[in-house]
Specification:
487 residues, alpha+beta
């Protein structure tokens, strides 16, 4: 009863945090960027990267420019054309000193960069000095709210040869720490009112198709559980796997809907966005919980979890929830916001910690099975299960490597028209991971693994004591040299 109550309280707190974070992050407008720079001191930061097609355009609106430091010499934007989204290093080349300035006449730029300098007195954009080949630039001043002047510059792609990824950055030039206030509104749009960049336009379809494939996998798993509902190998974790498949299907479906609204109107629909983030965070927690339970052998090789495993579960699930919340905040924060880099670092670090931590229960299970295989009457059963958990360990490593590294490499090397291949490969790797895990641990009579007879509680406690002493005193486990080998 105490455990159930604690779990319910934990779930309520997680749900409340998710709702709060979703509410805080909703003001972001997808491909419609709104930034309020207050006492901005950064000399350089990227606002956005967008794949423009012929007929597409980037529109920048600025207002309420207020220079707070007399040391500010120049301020404005640069638009850099490159086949790679990550152009921060190229743009920042040659700007190591505080006096270096991209708007200086002596500053050398390539043909792929357009400089849009603002007049520090009026805020109006000055005519660029670059030769705008295959690009059309329009600059004008509009009347905003309360007759506040709004200075607008529009950069359009006039030919197919100019189609590429365009990175917009903001620059401040000052020998000392600069400080300004500025209201910024930027819209990126391709023909037919497509607010997703070239290469991202197919994403709604990609997520919809993957949702359909996961739905088929869910139906197959329902059939397997129903057919073997009386099997002695059917455990609670199998129903948790069903819940994970169902939540994953919903997550992909809502993700597709979210991208559909961003593509159509430049911003997510609030109701669908909140629903997606709630389901997405739930999916993340369920995925790590399921992997932890399977890795610990809960139900397969032992009926209960040790206190060490319970503590690890609590830590990993808490970190995973925090990692997902950080990822949501980062995703819904404009690239130019000061807090984005912080949340990106937090999400990446915590996610890597979680990925590493889920391997510990599998290693413990492999060690436990290796010890059990040396005991008469358990050898054949333990060897079957040992092989299975070794394969599962390798599968987890492959899944982590693929979704955290390979997908990033794919996104870095494919042409910008095919940026969608990275997310598609990521979801495809997830589908393969789910299918293989279900195939290996399905409750069917022909499965290779056999349940190892339960140990007595005294034996489990004694094993934990011996292992703890082995760590502190350099002793070997009572079960022999098997503990000296690595998993």
């Amino acid at each position: 009863t105490t455990t159930t109550t604690t779990t319910m309280r934990w779930s309520v707190w997680v749900f409340a945090v998710v709702i709060g974070c979703c509410a805080l992050t909703l003001p972001c407008d997808g491909r419609v960027h709104r930034l309020s720079l207050r006492k901005e001191h950064r000399r350089y930061f990227i606002i956005s990267s967008f794949g423009l097609l012929q007929g597409g355009a980037i529109t920048i609106n600025t207002s309420k420019l207020e220079v707070l430091s007399d040391a500010v010499q120049h301020a404005g934007f640069s638009v850099h054309r490159s086949s790679e989204e990550s152009t921060e290093y190229n743009l920042n080349a040659g700007m190591t000193g505080p006096e270096a300035c991209i708007f200086s006449p002596s500053y050398e730029t390539d043909d792929a960069t357009v400089r849009l300098e603002m007049d520090l007195t009026t805020g109006a954009f000055q005519a660029p000095t670059e030769n705008l080949t295959d690009l059309v630039l329009e600059s004008r001043t509009l009347a905003g709210a309360d007759n506040e002047p709004v200075h607008q510059v529009k950069l359009a792609v006039a030919s197919e040869a100019a189609e590429d990824i365009y990175t917009i950055a903001f620059h401040l030039c000052s020998p000392t720490v600069p400080s300004i206030n500025l209201e910024l509104h930027m819209v990126e749009r391709n023909p037919n009112n497509d607010y997703l960049g070239a290469g991202q336009a197919p994403l709604p379809t990609v997520y919809a198709v993957m949702s359909g494939l996961f739905f088929i996998a869910t139906l197959v798993w329902v059939y397997v559980l129903f057919r073997f509902r009386d099997s002695s190998r059917l455990f609670k974790v199998h129903f948790l796997m069903l819940a994970l498949l169902f939540i994953k299907t919903l997550s992909l479906m809502f993700h597709s809907i979210d991208y559909h609204f961003i593509k159509a109107q430049g911003s997510p629909e609030e109701g669908w966005a909140v629903t997606y983030y709630i389901v997405h965070l739930t999916k993340g927690a369920l995925l790590f919980l399921t992997v932890l339970l399977i890795g610990a052998g809960f139900g397969f090789i032992k009926p209960v979890l040790s206190s060490r495993e319970k503590h690890l579960f609590a830590i990993v699930l808490g970190l995973q929830v925090f990692s997902n919340i950080a990822a949501v905040v980062m995703e819904e924060t404009s690239e130019g916001a000061v807090s984005r880099n912080f949340w990106h670092s937090i999400a990446l670090l915590v996610d890597l910690l979680c990925c590493g931590a889920i391997l510990f229960p599998i290693v413990w299970s492999i060690r436990h099975l290796r010890d059990a295989s040396s005991i008469d009457g358990k050898a054949e059963q333990s060897i079957h299960a040992l092989k299975l958990f070794r394969r599962f360990y390798v599968l987890i490593l492959c899944y982590i490597y693929t979704t955290r590294i390979v997908v990033y490499l794919i996104g870095s090397v494919v042409p910008f028209h095919y940026v969608w291949v990275g997310p598609f490969f990521n979801e495809l790797a997830g589908l393969c991971f789910y299918v293989l895990t279900g195939f290996w641990f399905a409750p069917v009579p022909t499965n290779a693994y056999l349940r190892v007879p339960d140990e007595e509680p005294e034996e489990i406690q004694m094993e934990e004591i011996v292992v703890a002493n082995a760590v502190g005193d350099g002793m070997h486990s009572r079960k022999g040299a098997a503990n000296t080998t690595t998993a």
